[in-house]
Amino acid sequence: MFSHDATASADERARRPHVPTAALRENIPCILCGTNDSVTLFAEPPFRIVRCTECSLVYTLPRLPTASISEMYQVGYWRSAEAKDFGYTDYLHDRDRYLRTFRLRSKVIERYKPTVGRVLDIGCAAGFFLKVMEEKGWDTTGVELSAPMADYARTELKLNNVFTGTLEEQQFGTESFDVITLWDVIEHLEDPRAVLATAKRLLKNDGILVLETQNVESVFARLMGRRWHHYKFEEHLWHFSPTTLSALLRLESFSLTEMSARRAGKFVTMNFAIERSARVHKTLPQLLRPLRCLGGLSLYVNPMDELIAVAGKA
Ligand SMILES: [Zn+2]
Q1: In the chain, N or C: fewer CB atoms in 10 Å?
Q2: pLDDT, tens digit (0-9, with 9 covering 90-100), for 230-255
């Protein structure tokens, strides 16, 4: 079981994986059009952010071996010493803020599904979204690759239907869910199309898919350039825009109902905001130091650089 101790020192936190350059994979075609032709937008060796020359999907090259990607999410990712580049500072410590964030986001779902039903959360992490939905009376199911996170959902949040592993490993019934969600997940998947194809099979004919991811073409992302906090090379494999995300959904026979940044903000602590400000300018955390006394205060932050898409079966 993953132990959660908010007082642990920074040295006990994990650092990003170090994989030998020879093991990195370069030959990754575009998932939308299959071509290998791309132009480099910028490089941060050994990684590059590239744009497909055919369809303009932005993605990361090269890529860690599949086993390293899976291993990366087990423990250290959730308590990271360098969260501005890799993972989360302390995911479980932010429990109350995630619950607040998901209460807000659940309103997107309630607009389309005002009565309770069955919800599947793919990549449910510690189960905070499912907990919110359970409190509202929904029948909840989750899948999570990270064993310690899935354990937390089962033991601490008492969510019985949380399964450890990938979606493909599960035996869920065809057309058995009213709502399927992917919060901050699609950009981490090696094969988003395979997961969406499975999600479509599991979704009832009148069900909805709700997907949230970062928007590489947002004003904030453009202003930040290479310092944008979503360029996390090991973990964010794909950077969608409204155009490429729509194309992905269309390719897997989903029809887009809504796409908006409006409810895609997050509750964070002042400390988190100060830590991430280093991405804007390296002196900012020092300038903001007087605000450290408010470090635990929760703020709702929405730089409008993430999208929530709602789609149905086409
Ligand atoms: Zn392409």
Answers
A1: N
A2: 999 999 999 999 999 999 999 999 99
